[in-house]
C-alpha cells in the first residue's frame, strides 16, 4: 500500500473509532485501551484450572500424578489434552459471542490467552486439526469457530493447520444439551471420518476445539485418526467444563 493511502486508511479508522468507539464484544463496555479486543473485566473473569491436572483429560487432580483414576482405566484415545480455562462465567460468554454472535475477532485473543494459561500446546505436534462442524451447521453459521482458533494457534506456534482432515458426516445433537457422559459418547459415535488419510498416517496431530465438555467429541475424533495411522494424537481447547463437585 502506498504511504498516502495507508495514511488515509489510518485516518478513516480513527474517525470510525470516534464515531463508533470500539466495545468489548463480550460485555459491550467501551474499550479504554486501543490494543484491546476483550476488556480487562471480562479477561479477569476467565478462570484458570487449578493444577495438578490429568495429562489426558485436563481435569484437576487431588494429588500430583500423571493421570486421573478414570483415564488410567478408560483412556480417551488422546495422548495428552491441554485446556486454557474452566468453561463458565465470562469465558463462556466470550465463546458464545464468537459462535452465536459471530464475533470472529474473538478467536485471536481466546487462542492467545488460553495458550498462555495452558503453558502452550501439548508436546510433539506436527500439525493442528480442528474438530469440524457438520456442513449444515457450517452453512448456518458461515464459519467454523474451531478452525478460526486453530488458525490462530498455528500462527502463534508456526504450525500448519490441516483443514478438512476430518469430516463430520452425521449432524449430532448440540452437545450443550446433554452433560450426561454416556449420552454424549453415543451421540458422537461414528460421526467423523478421516478426510485426508494420506496426510494423517504416521503424524503427530493436535485436535483443536473451542470447548471440551465430557471429552466424547475429541475421543471420537482421536479414534478415527488412530485408525488412519496417526502416530500421536493430542488435543487443545480454550475451555474445559469441570464436573460439579
Ligand atoms: Zn467485556
Ligand atoms: Zn483424566
CATH class of the largest domain: Alpha Beta
Largest sheet: 4 strands, parallel
Ends apart, CA distance between termini: 56 Å
Number of strands: 6
Strand order of the largest sheet: 1-6-5-2
The molecules bound to the chains, other than polymers, are: zinc ion
* Structural class label: alpha/beta
Low-confidence stretches are none
The oligomeric status of these chains comes to single chain
Number of helices: 10
Principal-axes geometry comes out as globular
Q: How many separate domains make up the residues?
A: 2
Quickly give the CATH architecture of the largest domain.
Answer: 3-Layer(aba) Sandwich
Mean pLDDT: 89
Radius of gyration computed on alpha carbons: 19 Å
- Please name the CATH topology of the largest domain: Rossmann fold
Q: How large is the share of residues in beta strands?
A: 5-15%
- Give, in order, the helices and strands: HHHEHHEHHEHEHEHE
Short description:
Helices cover 38% and strands 14% of the residues. The chain folds into 2 domains: 1-44, no CATH class; 48-240, Rossmann fold, CATH 3.40.50.
Task: Summarize the structure in words.
- This protein has 245 residues and is an alpha/beta fold.
- Helices cover 38% and strands 14% of the residues.
- The chain has ten helices and six strands.
- The protein has helices at residues 3-19, 40-44, 69-73, 89-99, 107-117, 135-141, 145-157, 181-188, 197-200, 216-227; strands at 80-86, 127-130, 166-168, 192-194, 204-212, 232-240.
- It has a four-stranded parallel beta sheet, with helices on both faces. Strands 3-4 form a two-stranded antiparallel sheet.
- α5 (107-117) crosses α7.
- It starts with a helix and ends in a 5-residue tail after the last strand.
- The mean pLDDT is 89.
- Bound molecules: zinc ion (2 copies).
Amino acid at each position: 500500500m502506498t504511504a498516502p493511502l495507508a495514511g488515509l486508511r489510518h485516518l478513516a479508522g480513527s474517525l470510525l473509532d470516534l464515531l463508533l468507539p470500539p466495545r468489548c464484544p463480550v460485555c459491550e463496555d467501551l474499550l479504554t485501551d486501543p490494543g484491546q479486543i476483550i476488556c480487562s473485566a471480562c479477561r479477569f473473569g476467565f478462570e484458570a484450572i487449578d493444577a495438578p491436572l490429568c495429562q489426558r483429560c485436563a481435569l484437576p487432580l487431588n494429588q500430583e500424578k500423571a493421570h486421573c483414576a478414570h483415564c488410567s482405566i478408560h483412556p480417551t484415545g488422546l495422548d495428552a489434552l491441554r485446556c486454557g480455562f474452566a468453561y463458565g462465567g465470562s469465558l463462556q460468554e466470550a465463546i458464545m459471542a464468537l459462535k452465536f454472535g459471530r464475533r470472529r475477532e474473538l478467536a485471536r485473543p481466546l487462542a492467545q490467552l488460553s495458550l498462555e494459561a495452558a503453558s502452550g500446546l501439548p508436546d510433539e505436534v506436527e500439525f493442528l486439526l480442528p474438530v469440524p462442524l457438520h456442513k449444515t451447521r457450517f452453512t448456518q453459521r458461515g464459519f467454523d469457530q474451531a478452525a478460526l482458533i486453530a488458525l490462530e494457534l498455528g500462527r502463534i506456534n508456526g504450525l500448519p493447520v490441516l483443514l478438512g482432515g476430518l469430516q463430520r458426516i452425521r449432524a449430532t445433537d448440540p452437545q450443550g444439551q446433554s452433560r450426561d457422559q454416556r449420552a454424549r459418547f453415543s451421540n458422537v459415535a461414528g460421526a467423523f471420518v478421516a478426510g485426508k488419510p494420506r496426510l494423517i498416517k504416521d503424524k503427530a496431530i493436535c485436535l483443536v476445539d473451542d470447548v471440551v465438555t465430557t471429552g466424547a467429541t475429541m475421543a471420537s475424533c482421536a479414534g478415527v485418526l488412530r485408525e488412519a495411522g496417526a502416530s500421536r494424537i493430542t488435543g487443545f481447547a480454550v475451555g474445559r467444563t469441570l464436573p460439579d463437585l
